[in-house]
Amino acid sequence: MRLVQPDSVADATSALGNGSRALAGGTELVPLLRSKLVEADTLVDVRAVVPRGVQGTTIGAGTTLAELEVDPEIPAVLRESCSLAASPQLRSMGTIGGNLLQATRCWYWRLQYPCFLHGGNVCHARQGEHREHAIFGNERCASAHPSDPAAALLALGARLRTDRRDLPLAELYRLPTEDDRSTTTLEPGELILELEVPQPEASTYLKAMDRARWAFPLVGVAAARFADGVRLALAGVAPIPWVLGSPAALDSATPLPGTAYKVDLARPLVRRALEAVA
Ligand SMILES: Cc1cc2nc3c(=O)[nH]c(=O)nc-3n(C[C@H](O)[C@H](O)[C@H](O)COP(=O)(O)OP(=O)(O)OC[C@H]3O[C@@H](n4cnc5c(N)ncnc54)[C@H](O)[C@@H]3O)c2cc1C
Ligand code: SF4
To answer: How high is the pLDDT of residue 17?
Structure first.
């Protein structure tokens, strides 16, 4: 395997595609390479070219979660979602860009079962073990998106700037379909460069997890209040980060037998989050 260390965005993007992958902190990519869930002949180290740090409402995609969790300039919901993610060591290496692009933790997918998301015809989790899986958008793939910061950024109405477009974060994600099993709209070789994050009047992130530290969200609730109202988004409840139109939208959840408890977890978390930002 080759390691390429470009010194411009143009050099990085021309080195990407055709069997190469962008490498930032490597906390997600390296385990995926080791378990052969991702194949690459070249790694393109993008740390020198993807912006890092916070400038007003602009956050470089190369900023680590550890840097974000202590930055007083960024909204509380994003700070809190970062500080509740992973472990201190992972947050010191892991970048916000890489976090938004992490793959599902579904154990069937990680064990390479030939499931729907891998291109097959069935979702093994629907029939099998699925206590950590989805309650929304789970008709074909019932995986639960693991990113806490993605829910925070959705509630904030963040936008992304890549090397080729500017888009709302919500448009980065898509539910997998028969024709296309991917869960993001990122094109091959496209690099996320920056996030534009509006400042809310108040915001918070609440997370239910199996233990108090170093656990993925069973349910994460992000709430952000702006002049025109409060926006809610959830982590750990659908194959992609999920916008919750209102607390009543929880009534339209489609839980599996083993995930019905997540609806009961989400209701009080949503209520508490709304009280916190009122
Ligand atoms: C044990 C463990 C527990 C965790 N717990 C949590 C948790 O509770 N909550 C949570 O939110 N996260 C959790 N994470 C995820 C962790 O936060 C991510 O692994 C990390 O943020 C990924 O960032 P990275 O820079 O290391 O990405 P990398 O591993 O370098 O890259 C990840 C992916 O993103 C691509 N990529 C990276 N940067 C860019 C870019 N700028 N443009 C385009 N593509 C890019 C890479 O090609 C790769 O496909 C956990 C991870 C582990 C291993
Ligand atoms: S939940 Fe998705 S990733 Fe998991 S087995 Fe089903 S189709 Fe595969």
So the answer is: 80
3-state class of 178 per DSSP? coil
Report pLDDT for 260. Answer: 98
In three-state secondary structure terms, 92 is helix
Distance CA 145, CA 238 (A): 6
Q: Which of 99, 169, 186, 209 to mutate to test the pocket of ligand 1 (most atoms within 8 A of CB)?
A: 99
HSE (side-chain half, CA atoms, 13 Å) at 257: 5
User: What's the confidence (pLDDT) of residue 3?
Assistant: 97
Phi/psi at 17 (nearest 5 deg)?
90, 170
Which residues of the chain fall short of a pLDDT of 70? Answer: none
Which residue, among 158, 154, 180, has the nearest Cα to 167 in the 3D structure?
Answer: 158
Does residue 117 have its Cβ closer than 6 Å to ligand 2?
yes
- Ligand 2 touching residue 136 (CB < 6 A): no
Q: Which residue has the tokens 């109202």?
A: 229
Give the span between the Cα atoms of 167 and 149, in whole angstroms: 17
Tens-digit pLDDT profile for residues 40-60:
999 999 999 999 999 999 999
